[in-house]
Amino acid sequence: MHLRPDARRLINYLHELPHRPVRFCPWCDATDLRFRSQPARQRLARYYCRSCRKSCNSLSDSPFANLHRMDQWAAFAVYLLAGWSSVQIAARFGLTSKVYFSWGRAVGVVMAEECAELHQWWTTRQFRENLQPPEHIERQQRAVVTWLEATLNARHARCPKCGGGQTYRIKGLRPKFKCDRCVTCFCTLSATPLTGMIRADLWVDFIKGVMDGQSIQDLKRSSGLGMGASKRWREQFLLLIEALGHSELLGWIVWMRSRRSNEVVSLVRQGGCLDMATRSVYPQGLRKGRFVSKQ
């Protein structure tokens, strides 16, 4: 939260960067500049230095020198800070991979110079160097896990039909109850996105993996479920998080998920082995339905 002013300052800086006045020559630091040409559409005003006899503009001494489409740099920084992946940003702006990395490198340099604290925060999460969530995200993660555990381990519930509290739990992992008053059987998960799901013993570990930003392949390998079940479970748990009102946690999950490619690249560079068939960092489990640990 405290970095939002820095983010706004960075975006405003990139928006005003091409139009800032040139007061000295970036090549010789002389102030004897002469206006050389009028700015045309999508062009910058150029100046001529009488000392070194070189021309310059407002971007000559910046990392954005020789880069085009200056009207989109601020919007590019917005998507970069929002955690969009390189593929998504490149498709959004119609950029090639070379142009994307040139823009990203320039934004990173400017961010380090103008907003050092914001750059430190962004770098650790961009390259997954620090996977520790912020305090408010960690509180939301604990709230989701606590709600799920409390729901699964509840011993009593109020009957949705008659409103009576004289209920007892039916044997099983799912929170099913029977009402003595109206003899009605019900499940407390009926009105939630988790209705119809099985294997409740895997839910807590699975949702922790979802909140950590793991891919479908990693969730499949770590849980022992099939690919289709892993996809459905992930979608249902995301709907549950949204239903509980943790929108910031959803944004964090998207951010962590988009950074996984950097984590995989670092793993391979450090000598790690990646299963190319499923592109997972987890080994194949011996039994389905059992979580396995990283090796």
UniProtKB/TrEMBL annotation:
It comes from the Bacteria. This is IS1 family transposase. It comes from Pseudomonas prosekii.
